[in-house]
Amino acid sequence: MIKTENVCKDFGELKVLKNISLTVEPGEVLCIIGPSGAGKSTYLRSLNRLEKITEGAIYIEDKLLEKREKGAKINKITSKERADILLEVGMVFQRFNLFPHKTVLENVMIAPMNVKKISKAEAEETARDLLGKVGLSDKIDAYPSKLSGGQQQRVAIARALAMKPKIMLFDEPTSALDPELVGEVLNVMKKLAEDGMTMLVVTHEMGFAREVADRVVFMYQGQVEEIGKPEQIFTNPKSERTKQFLKKVL
Ligand code: ADP
Ligand code: MG
């Protein structure tokens, strides 16, 4: 579903990603853990082309999205082709960024109507269905400011799903939430995983990673330090750095 080959990203002199090669299989949940500054967000953002990589290649569903050498693009792809590939990728951020002057329902309807040119009736039907799935049927006409952080993040998830992506990227979706609201968002993500969604999740929620991930990646200083099944990573990490990190967070 996703494949990256030797992805590097420099910000000027700073080498933030160093040869990241990873694959995510259809239906797989891959959790990325690691210390702050490891490059987790930059990696996720590269997959969505919110950051331009410096080196390496990114494939989405076997389609080449991007291939670069020394910053120069070496694949030919039209902006239409790129946009079509990226339609398959939804993303949820730490901050939800809902449209404040639109209702919950409108927030979920707007992108499919504007980007996919879906009829209002169809967009509304999908939005109602998704808002039901994230447990917000009773908040459809509310404005975001009237919702808790956990509710807003669930709207953000429904909004991303409304585009019917095949892959969902989550960048610390619960980090901005009060502790008592974390569970409701993780539960929605867990359900999504059980429904077979391919997911790449950057998280500090080790319980979630352990329970839901098919594989866990430990990123350290822009590299994949270790990758394995959650059971192995959490009980028997091979790398000393993984061990030290887990000691701090568990
Ligand atoms: P993480 O998500 O693992 O905490 P990030 O991917 O956000 O790490 O950041 C990795 C490194 O890249 C950090 O040192 C950060 O300061 C740097 N960085 C991130 N974005 C930029 C940017 N736009 N310009 C310069 N440096 C950046
Ligand atoms: Mg980050």
Task: Give a description of the structure.
- The protein has 250 residues and is an alpha/beta fold.
- β8, α6 (179-194) and β9 form a beta-alpha-beta unit.
- The model has no long low-confidence stretch (mean pLDDT 97).
- It has 9 helices and 11 strands.
- 41% of the residues are buried.
- The chain has one domain: P-loop containing nucleotide triphosphate hydrolases (Rossmann fold, 3-Layer(aba) Sandwich).
- A 6-stranded mixed sheet has the order 7-8-9-3-10-11, sandwiched between helices.
- The site of magnesium ion has 3 residues, from α1.
- Magnesium ion binds at residues 40-41, 172.
- It comes from Lachnotalea glycerini.
Structural class category = alpha/beta
Largest sheet: 6 strands, mixed
Based on the structure given, which CATH architecture is correct? 3-Layer(aba) Sandwich
How many helix segments? Answer: 9
The CATH H-level superfamily is: P-loop containing nucleotide triphosphate hydrolases
Strand content: 25-35%
Query: How confident is the prediction overall: mean pLDDT?
Result: 97
What is the helical fraction, as a range of percent? Answer: 25-40%
Radius of gyration: 18 Å
CATH topology: Rossmann fold
Q: Tell me which ligands are bound.
A: adenosine-5'-diphosphate, magnesium ion
CATH class: Alpha Beta
List unreliable stretches of 5+ residues. Answer: none
Strand order in space, largest sheet: 7-8-9-3-10-11
